[in-house]
Write a structure and sequence with these properties.
heterotrimer; A mainly alpha; B mainly alpha; C alpha/beta; B: two-stranded antiparallel ribbon; two-stranded antiparallel sheet; 13 helices; 4 strands; globular; C: alpha/beta; Rossmann fold; 3 domains; six-stranded mixed sheet; 17 helices
Chain lengths: 389, 318, 512
Amino acid sequence: MKQKKSILANETFQSIAASVLCIVIGMLIGYIVLLVINAKGANEAITTLIKNYFTFSSKKLILKNLGNTLIKTAPLIMCALSVQFCYKAGLFNIGAAGQYVVGAGASLYAALGWHMPWFVCVLFAMCAGGIYGAIVGFLKAFRNVNEVISGIMLNWIGLYLVNMLLSGVKETTSPYTLDLAKENTSALMPTLGMEKFFSNNTHVTIAIPLAVIIAIVIWVIQKKTVFGYELRATGINKQGARYAGMKENTNIILTLVIGGALAGTGAAFQFLTGYEQWTTTMSSVPAMGFNGIAATFLGGLHPVGTVFASYFIQHITSGGARLDKNIYPSQISDLISGIIIYLCGFVLFFKYAINLRLQARAEKELRLQRQREENASSADAKEEKGGDK
Amino acid sequence: MVLLIQYTLLFASVLMLVALGGCYSEHSGVINLGLEGIMVMGALGGALTLKSFNQAYAAGNVSAFVVVIVTILIAILSGMLYSCLLGFASIQFKADQTLVGTAMNMLAAAMATVIVKTINTSENPNNVSTTVAYIDAKKALNRNIGSFQFSWFMLVAVIALILAYVVLYKTKFGLRLMACGEHPQAADSVGISVNKMRWAGVLISGMFGGLGGIVYITAGVSEWKFEVGVAGFGFLALAVMIFGQWKPHIIALAALLFGFFRALSNVYSGFDFLYALGIPSSFYNMMPYIISLLVLAFTSRNSRAPKAEGIPYDKSSR
Amino acid sequence: MQDVYTIEMLNITKRFPGIVANDNITLRLKKGEIHALLGENGAGKSTLMSVLFGLYQAEEGIIKKDGKEVKITNPNIANDLGIGMVHQHFKLVQCFSVLDNIILGVETTKNGILQKAEARRKVMELSEKYGLKVDPDALVEDITVGMQQRTEILKMLYRDNDILIFDEPTAVLTPSEIDELMQIMKNLAKEGKSILFISHKLNEIMEVADRCSVLRRGKYIGTVDIKDTTKEELSRMMVGRDVQLVVSKGEAKPGETVLSVRDMSVASKLHHNNAVKNVSFDVRRGEIVCIAGIDGNGQTELVYGLSGLEPIVGGSINLCGKDISKASIRSRSTSGMSHIPEDRQKHGLILDYSLAYNLVLQRYFEPKFRNALGFLKEKEINAYANELIDQYDVRSGQGTATIVRSMSGGNQQKAIIAREMDKEHDLLIAVQPTRGLDVGAIEYIHRQLIAQRDAGKAILLVSLELEEVLSVSDRILVMYEGEIVGELDPAKTNREELGLYMSGARREAVKV
């Protein structure tokens, strides 16, 4: 049987087109802002933003800075996966930010307080995030607490807890945690020789390929396993999943445990590279988790899509840092990210509108067809009646 | 001790204003997670206004009254304008309110930083900070009563509280607003425009959010670094609102309680016995959230949250 | 003498895509009368009332108020014309007081402050005058369904409406509350209000109405004076005498009992009473037992109770000798219960999943379709899906990969039927399996049900269609207000008798 299908109806096409559109509009607004700030340098500035490390002339510097962008992409991918994984099961994991925070706390304390090797630290981060996610899950499943609200509360509780915890392993004169490279090199994630490719950027670790692999694993779980089958069914149609005998509460908790573990691991991927230290006086929840939400939606709610979206967001963020600070603020890239995620809010609506229209069109055709059949059959019926009389 | 009371009252004022704002929005049926961002924008508008009054007020060319009123108006206006983003997306386009709120928070922080930096560098090319200073004009906001610094904003908060109580429970507007958040189909069936009421709710929340923003950044300090946003006060206000069960008078009590914890974290080292306990300030900062979470866990089954909040209103479902 | 009509709906035709919901219907409402509007489900009563209340616009026909033509394009205009409606599902704000609900939308204020004293006086006056007892300060969530309904009536009276529409008002009331409502309606009519009373319960219509108009399948059948008619005649007008669908089937050969239900009760989501009250019955192998009844008499909840979607609040369920009263949905399914749900889009399908995935929705966890590592065996799933697609003739655009949302309703239903019938089972529960389908699909489904019966399965069919009930089933149980009020033999009964049971006009004790 052949059926014409509009390209508009293709799910993948819709997602990619929508994301590209959001990016274009976001960049355009960013460009306008640059123009307003300083019209003369705007063209150059927007190119810098897009080119990021390509602005360097030497290949060595390009590779080193590509490495820097990738280092920060890995944790972002993990946070995005956390949000994506939960969203597919119908849960909005705004608590990824907090799960990331406790992951940071656990991994850094294991590394600095107990001098554990890196994989144990990662394990700690994973468990801490998982347990933190489980709290949200329990509250949702058994106490009917909205996961967004409890997530927000736990984000802040996590921040202050971790600040308290890590104050025990901070440098005496600064609010930063101790330097891993000096304190416990075994806790640094291995580079497996990758640093050579990135001009000796020793912060480039296996975290980067791991994040990508995990994204693919998540994709496989969602697409190929019984567990993923149940989770997605619950996300699409909770009532239908219940009808088919799936265990709603268990799945809610399990989803959030996994989501939490992903975000927690993301923190380990960030802090065990030694690229950054935790600031124990931090007064707001790190943006990583929230950026994860942005990457999730920009990635079209697809695990592999989030990898690209995460890279894009990190790319323009790093690009922003290369702007001439005396003319343009580097946060212009945050502004663009913010606009893009705002626009993502409309994507679901427009997708819904397009599909509704396509569906209405299909239904109309079907109805016309049925009506023709009906007319034919009712004509038959009339004849019969006439015969009876 | 006076300092503790002063900070408690100031922080309580902030929390009360913002929570009341959230209250209007939620009663109309829109969850406003963007309060944090709205606060930032209100704070920005207010801070820039104050800054522009710096010289004139120091020279005695304007009265304190004018400074206070104009600052409040600009902060309110900024907040309202910014809240339009929420109204537009979530009412007009039925977008996911959680996503839009989150986006607004991220956007506000970035936007404020960009704006402040741009202004700073245009005044002085070497100034790439995100700091707005309003040292002189800020004096207009306070009046010393003994060692207690009374802020006019405390008065504003009290007025807002009384107003919220009257508006929500005693006026036609309040009745209709709450009907839209509880049962929009019912409101629609008696000829009330649900979308209009929800816009009203969102705009009022923008108003109070913006006001709360300026109150927060003028509490105790005379300059503000916009990089840090408003340090989660928008979310804390959300906690106040939930703890306050969406009712203005309980919100007032919750604001005092949570404001007290926040103040403690700022000034606990001034109290010998608290200092001796050795509890870090983080602990006091954390308390409000823990309390809210516990309250949620034990009351959510029969929560007083507006029933239709977060659900876009679809006319065809009537 | 010329009758005075306050509302005339003349030659109203309202089409929805593919269906004529109202076909040239004329309804005249006299001033001060109680006019019943009688019809089965889907007869077009609600559509007609929605046209009058301004929720829909008719394609043809005009509406006159007091002899003058009016255009009612939205509910506010209806309100201005004095038309008020008590909806089947009340439009009341739960956490508001009764008084606040009544004044909502027409509040009086002074300097912006609500003036409730005057409103309260008026409400109390109205309450006294018509015998509508309410507590104006009680919150709606705390009061009985009866009082909620009185609040809705007061809402109309407070707005000085004089044409009052009651949409199935007794569905949610207890018997004593119904008596009270009947009295209230009579009082209202005596005071000059004109009432449109939508119902399918003959007893109530006979008791309270002056005249009755009957609709059937979107068409106007006629209007009769109640004093000149009988229940039997009304029932006949309502159900008609259509040509029966011919379903060829042999004699049933009932075997052992498969499903045994004793004193089962299920709570209602709409009101405080139980939706299913102490129901007992058996279903044996090789027979089709049909639960007949008018929509909303507890059939949905009965099935929810059986399938585990809702907990039962009393009694027991026994499937193949195993007590499943408290079993999980999954274990009921694996113990041999198949369930074709009432709402195929809400329960029966995951619309955004492929056809293949939907066909294994009840079996994906079996070793046949998953390996030890928890991966789905796509190949097996597809092969199995193709098998079912062939066997049950499920048509779709892209075979097993078709997203179910894009399939026609008939084929969606076929997919569910294929899934539930092919799965290991002893009992098949089919709830309105032919709803919204065309003649071909209906015949197909009936054939399948009979084939299942002949294969020795026990079948419980829930249907609202009398024709289906009479032609497919081997035994009929009639449900009315949550109880089984009669057991009939389809060979010995007819539409009229069935209609009387369904509308509560007749009942008998049923022994199991």
